[in-house]
Structure to design on (291 residues):
């Protein structure tokens, strides 16, 4: 009696081959590492061959695995094509988008609204966190797309915008005039050390007045005129305003907003969401030039 290959296990196998390891593959598939490993093991037991070479640091394919990979791709492509033709909606599933909280507005809500109209059956899970956290999640395959705020762009990324950091404080506040200058930052904020270094270079004494893992706590403290903060120009949160310090505070560096897209992608919709983000930032650049 003919035996049948498990398409779920084949999909896990292809993901491991493409991602170069079980950890990243698990992120792409939204499964645990143990679940992916079990599926590969089940596939190996069904054919009585080893598919993965686990001897080195990185997972490689055995000769049998290399042979199976070509067949697996064809089988999955045919499966997905049949489903697409019969259901008339090939774009369904989940995309995980990671964005630093300080650049969620104003671009991302517009992008998500547009994407939802074009792909109503795709669910986008938005992760709002710090750049360092998002980079770690992306490295583990837990995000399909991330935006970052960095002073450079890493291999595989592209820069969408380059914006200056600006000082913000309470409307009509006076905290920026006090010495030592009272600062408010999240523990993992990537801007924090650079701002402190700029103040040191300018000979301005400072102290950390508010430290928190909560962006809301920082915003509330700054809006209460307890401290000052820095954000990318154009992303000032409500209830604070840009400080017109007239040179009393140092000018700050420019930061890049970078885009990283997982490779391989698990759906063409991932590429379309990335394209929408690019277009949105391009439109903002054009608007600034006109203004």
């Amino acid at each position: 009696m003919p035996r049948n290959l498990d398409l779920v296990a084949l999909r896990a196998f292809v993901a491991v081959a493409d991602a170069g390891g079980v950890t990243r593959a698990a992120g792409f598939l939204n499964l645990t590492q143990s679940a992916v490993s079990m599926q590969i093991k089940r596939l190996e037991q069904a054919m009585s061959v080893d598919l993965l070479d686990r001897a080195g640091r990185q997972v490689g394919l055995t000769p049998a695995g290399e042979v199976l990979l070509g067949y697996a791709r064809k089988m999955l492509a045919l499966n997905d094509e049949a489903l697409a033709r019969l259901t008339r909606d090939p774009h369904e599933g989940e995309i995980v988008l990671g964005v630093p909280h300080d650049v969620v507005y104003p671009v991302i809500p517009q992008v998500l609204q547009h994407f939802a109209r074009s792909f109503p059956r795709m669910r986008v899970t938005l992760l709002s966190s710090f750049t360092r956290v998002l980079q770690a999640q992306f490295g583990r395959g837990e995000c399909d797309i991330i935006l970052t705020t960095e002073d450079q762009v890493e291999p595989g990324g592209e820069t969408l915008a380059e914006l200056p950091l600006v000082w913000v404080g309470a409307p009509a506040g006076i905290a920026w005039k006090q010495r030592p200058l009272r600062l408010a930052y999240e523990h993992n904020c990537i801007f924090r050390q650079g701002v402190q270094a700029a103040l040191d270079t300018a000979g301005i004494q400072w102290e950390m007045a508010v430290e928190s893992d909560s962006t809301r706590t920082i915003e509330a403290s700054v809006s209460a005129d307890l401290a000052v903060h820095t954000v990318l120009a154009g992303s000032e949160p409500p209830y604070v305003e840009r400080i017109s310090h007239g040179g009393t505070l140092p000018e700050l560096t420019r930061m890049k907003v970078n885009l990283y897209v997982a490779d391989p992608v698990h759906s063409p919709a991932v590429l379309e969401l990335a394209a929408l983000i690019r277009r949105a930032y391009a439109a903002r650049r054009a608007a600034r030039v006109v203004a």
